[in-house]
Amino acid sequence: MTAGVAVVGMGIAVPGAGDPDELWKLLRGGRPVFGEPADRYPLDAFWSADPAAEDRCYTRTSGFLHDFRPHPVLAGEIAAGVHDEADRTALWLRHCLLQARTDVAVRATDRYAYYVGTSSLIGDRAERAVLAEAVAGRHTDPKAADRLRSLVYGGGPPRDTLPDRIARSAASGLLPADCEFAVVDAACSSSLYTIGLGVLGLLDGSCDLAVCGGVSAVTPRYNVTFAKLRGLSPGEDVRVFDERADGTLFSDGAGVVVLKLLERAVEDGDPVLGVLLGFGGSSDGRGTAIYAPNPVGQSRCLERARRAAGVSADDVDWVLAHGTGTSVGDAVELRTLAGATGAGGVWCGSNKSLLGHSAWSSGVVSVIEALTALWEGAIPAQARFTSFGASAPYADRVRVPVTDVPWPEDRRRARVVGVSAFGFGGTNGHLLIADRAEVPTSRPVPDADPVVVLAWTAHLPGDPGPGEVARWLRGGVLPGPRTFGDRYPAPPFPDVRLPPPTVRATDAGQLMALRVTALFGAEHGELWDPVRATTGVVAAASGPQPSASDNLVRCHAAELDALLEGADRAAFAEYVAGLRAVTPPTTKDTLPGILPNVVAARIANRYDLGGVTMLVDSGFTAVHVAARQLAHGELDMALVLGVSANSRPEFARFMGLGDVAEGAFLLALARESVARAHGLVPLTRLGSAWQRAPRRAPVAGETFAAADGVLAVLRALHADAAETSVGPADGEPGPVITLRRQTRSSR
């Protein structure tokens, strides 16, 4: 990446700070923001002092945005009743958008990209909508079912609680409805990944402004599942890097940055808050466990960011680390950083001792801290830190400031800060930011090296062979049943390489991802073998998945029992008893087994892949994102996965869909030069652009939910035409994927 992308706006909402100035004051001497949930949820229904208590959490505090003060424009909208049914996360995100765009010059012809990092279930309203369908959906009396839905959840379509709807509602009237858009889930690195995507869009000219960020909300179920990993601080005192560190605490949070090409920002007179030098993303690949941090993956993303930026370790003054306060995670990160510093060492800090871990939004929160520190000319002291401890092997290379460190502008050189975010499942990101850079005379564009489709595989109920699936893709009948049954059958051990207790705690979508990849390898070979380190996985899935929904009911059982009365309470007790008989209690395997982004990470872990992995909410978006990563050289090969693992009636009602079919579809993409270099014969070339979708005849049959986009590309692959384009519903803006068969003269 040439140093040609500027940050021209930023907005933030975290406990204790509603704008960057308040954030700076908090970081310069504020107190930790942790407290009890108050009216957010009944704490005693989820808490126990006993860490071994079933489906309970042993901590009482988190970082809650109780003191949220909306942007004046948003405050006026709230007073006028515009957002009466809005999710709180949509309000936090809208607040940040309003704040970030304040001083940004725009033109009528500007094209926007809007990327939001978050989870499939981003707040308590979304979880309550899932609970309502689980409880009410078993009633045969429609009136009784509606009464229970109202009691447990309230009003509004459940689909509106999902992240794509929340992100779009937050931007309503602020960004064009047809702008390029994606919801990205890479766990705690999600919002940093959105910035990486925004940079690529600016550099290849597909947008003029990129609006990137993330939002996350504390929920009791997430605290319960993380507690079973013993990752929360028993003393409720986050002490990042300190020898007494014993865990983290999660917090609400939202943040947004607005990006432009530096040349355009200077021309427009925008405030240049910082210049993005380079982004590096990676996966941990194979390791001891999918939730165990791997120094190989972390080192890889640092190296990639520095290579993209054209800087050395000696150029970096400060690293704003992921640093969560878990003793194992902090030690791995510090050792990795010590091995990647220059001769003079590096300053290192983390905001989580004060702010808590804002999960999916933590990356952009740290970026906003870094930008503010550049502006203020100081590196803030590390809160709640005294000493690494006597035996720390990194103390001579990594310096943690115990007082504020002056960091004034230097005429001789740019000041450079690196921001790290490492996500659950081994998704790593590192972003380098400077206070200035030369305005580039030109911007890089991807080489004329087409993206090609190498191979595909499908995994469907009944295990039809490739020939049967191909006939179905050409317009035949679904070659088997619609679903895998009430419980997805465990794949063979070589496919998953997981112990039986872990398999039982792992959602069907993750197991299906591993199974379809094993089938791909059996049919085509492991095509990624020569480029494992630069092969990534982009997956598409959306909505509540089966194991996650079942665990949610287990964790909320005490709360719902207290809420229901009479026959409803008795019926719920019977339902929960049956659920507990077939659903394991929350264990250390539960969180990795239900986190949506781990669908992609499982493949990278099983096959030791080192490229970026992420989950998006649409199959078309997955292909689009993968193609862009390939075109820019971020990846050499991409596995694109579409998975549909939940055919339950309550899922269909939640999503507003008809009959949902189950299955997984995998595409392997690469640049044409990579394919040729390794003797791989492409099936077709693939292009991708965000535009109005072409008109196409509707496809009869069941929906595969978020996997429909990947399935549409497979159907286009089996069409007879020399060129076929597919995209979302007629007239809708979105990623349009074009397949062009190669003629003899074009090869």
Automatic annotation (TrEMBL):
<keyword id="KW-0597">Phosphoprotein</keyword>
<keyword id="KW-0596">Phosphopantetheine</keyword>
<comment type="similarity">
    <text>Belongs to the thiolase-like superfamily. Beta-ketoacyl-ACP synthases family.</text>
</comment>
<dbReference type="InterPro" id="IPR050091">
    <property type="entry name" value="PKS_NRPS_Biosynth_Enz"/>
</dbReference>
<dbReference type="GO" id="GO:0006633">
    <property type="term" value="P:fatty acid biosynthetic process"/>
</dbReference>
<dbReference type="InterPro" id="IPR016039">
    <property type="entry name" value="Thiolase-like"/>
</dbReference>
<feature type="domain" description="Ketosynthase family 3 (KS3)">
    <location>
        <begin position="2"/>
        <end position="435"/>
    </location>
</feature>
<dbReference type="InterPro" id="IPR014031">
    <property type="entry name" value="Ketoacyl_synth_C"/>
</dbReference>
<dbReference type="InterPro" id="IPR020841">
    <property type="entry name" value="PKS_Beta-ketoAc_synthase_dom"/>
</dbReference>
<dbReference type="InterPro" id="IPR014030">
    <property type="entry name" value="Ketoacyl_synth_N"/>
</dbReference>
<dbReference type="Pfam" id="PF00109">
    <property type="entry name" value="ketoacyl-synt"/>
</dbReference>
<dbReference type="Pfam" id="PF02801">
    <property type="entry name" value="Ketoacyl-synt_C"/>
</dbReference>
<keyword id="KW-0808">Transferase</keyword>
<protein>
    <submittedName>
        <fullName>Beta-ketoacyl synthase N-terminal-like domain-containing protein</fullName>
    </submittedName>
</protein>
<feature type="region of interest" description="Disordered">
    <location>
        <begin position="724"/>
        <end position="747"/>
    </location>
</feature>
<dbReference type="GO" id="GO:0004312">
    <property type="term" value="F:fatty acid synthase activity"/>
</dbReference>
